[in-house]
Amino acid sequence: MAISGPAKTVLQTVSVVVLMGGLAWASVPFYDWFCRVTGFGGTPGQVSANSEGILDQTVTVRFDGSLNDGMSWEFKPVVNEMEIRIGETGLAFYEAYNPTDHPIAGQAAYNVTPYAAGAFFEKIECFCFTEQVLAPGERVEMPVSFFVDPEIVADRDGKFVHTITLSYTFYEIDLPEGYAALDQDSQTNLN
Fold this sequence. Notes:
Blueprint: H1 5-38, E1 45-46, E2 58-67, E3 74-77, E4 81-85, E5 90-97, E6 104-113, H2 115-118, E7 121-126, E8 132-134, E9 139-148, E10 163-173, H3 177-190
Parallel strand pairs: 1-7, 2-10
Antiparallel strand pairs: 2-4, 3-5, 5-9, 6-8, 6-10, 7-9
């Protein structure tokens, strides 16, 4: 059965629209994966072990914390910077506080600047890997352990990096199911 001219054009147009929609849908997770693997755009890597070697050279790591519009928490680094040897495991803490009368869930987005350091900044553990839920009035210190890969000293651009800034922005997300029920109960008790 042959498809006529107008029907063929409509079928081709619909096929192109479906293909473009599929590519648009897949682009966000693909881009996120690409950035994590390559360090593109200052996205640090995630590893499960400490560095194999530690160099005598040091690098200053600065810490920055901010909140997305509408996020009710207070959020800041406990220390603003630290100097570590390249390859040495560093441990830093960020403090978060929920001053409201209801639980709030948050997720941290992060990046590293300068971008040349992104491929060499490796996180071992981080609060940003999972969602965080703070009860009303709760204050917590959240750790991040990391190291700067010694390969940075052999990189064309990375070898000139002496200061790295690790930035987090917390944004509010929907409460997980168990917490949503608690929030409903607390709102009912207030009324």
